[in-house]
Amino acid sequence: MIAAPLGALFADAEVGGLFSAGALTAAMTRVEAALAEAEAEVGVIPAEAGAEIARVLAGLQVDPALLAEGTASAGVPVPALVKALRAALPEAAAEWLHWGATSQDIVDGALVLQFGAALEVLEARLARTIGALKAASERHDELVMAARTRSQVATPVTFGLRAARWAQPLIAEGLALPEVRARMTVQFGGASGAGTAVAPHGPAISAALAARLGLSDGPAWHTDRGAVQALGQWAVRLTAGLGKFAQDLVLMGRTSEASAGEGGGSSTMPQKANPVAAEAVLTLSRLVATLAPALSTPHAEERDGAAWALEWLVLPQMLEATGAALAHAATLAETLRPNAEALRAPLTDGAALAEAASFALAPHMGRAEAQALVKRAARAEEPLVPALRRLTDAPVDWDALVPEAVVPACREAAAAVFARWPG
């Protein structure tokens, strides 16, 4: 999908290979073979023909280059593929190939198989990433740092909780994956979606075809592209979660709070170690989000060649980009290196304890007065807690007002995130 040298950073050979010309041709051939077997099982074509088609096609590899001219002419590779497959079959079996099907049945069926294979790769990488973040969360569950809201220092939290928050949207998409898979059903509707050429056997053929391909059965979806859109939106949400992780790493790198992976050098500044992998995840996340709206194009009437073909160009790119982002993110998660000193630095003046101080004082003077007093103390030239000791004699245990006081609550919040993940 992405040519060298950029491919070294943004491409994914494993996922991209699942959508190669050879992979698509093989998947379409598999669908044609399964269709013949299904129709023979139902009794629509002779059993001998179905068996012979399945036998020949099982060992047949069609050169995708042979389909190029036919694809340019027909706008879809199936007519050229069927011609090549028939040429390899005995005449008695050849006439039964592609019986009652339309090109969209074969292409969509093949793409669903490719999508399923790609999701297996993505699911494994997702589990690896979540597992690494969980390990980091548990390893650093007492490492305090400053939370930032709207880019400003807020309250103390733990690095363990931040790692859990990175994992949280990833866990949600891992849990959503079965539903995404379930929507990718078999495609068999014939010329106009009603299966009229094989009526009344269309539903039986569809069910038998689904069973042979390992898919769920369902109505033809020639122009109902909800399943395709659901897969695309899943990729958008997942890479958005990965992008949040990467963006935080880039920001934390500015103050040396944390690093991960191996930084890349500058062409002119020897001291730099650029966050290449994190930036790549951000780029890939934005690429997926940019491509996604193309999948919302409505499909007109009973088949829309232009809108349908757009999916062939867009969704494989989205899934390959998702695969590359996951590969980078997994490595980043496994090599997280928080800098305890830098993380704690914004907490030294005590300003991040302002919220805790307000709530500690509120029972003694009311919340509004407590907040006003803490605001006044925060503006003093001395650290927050000494200023409060000077400004009020309220019976507050100031020695307990320390950043580490947040550890139990943060540990509990992080555990709640990972409790949802069965891995």
Description:
The protein has 423 residues and is mainly alpha-helical. The chain has two domains: 7-343, Fumarase/aspartase (Central domain) (Fumarase C, Chain A, domain 2, Up-down Bundle); 348-404, no CATH class. Helices cover 62% and strands 4% of the residues. The protein is built from 18 helices and four strands. The strands form two sheets. The chain has a two-stranded antiparallel ribbon. Strands 3-4 form a two-stranded antiparallel ribbon. β1 and β2 form a beta hairpin. The model is unreliable at 266-270 (pLDDT under 50). Residues 25-285 form the Fumarate lyase N-terminal domain. Keywords: Isomerase. InterPro entries: Fumarate_lyase_CS, Fumarate_lyase_fam, Fumarate_lyase_N, L-Aspartase-like.
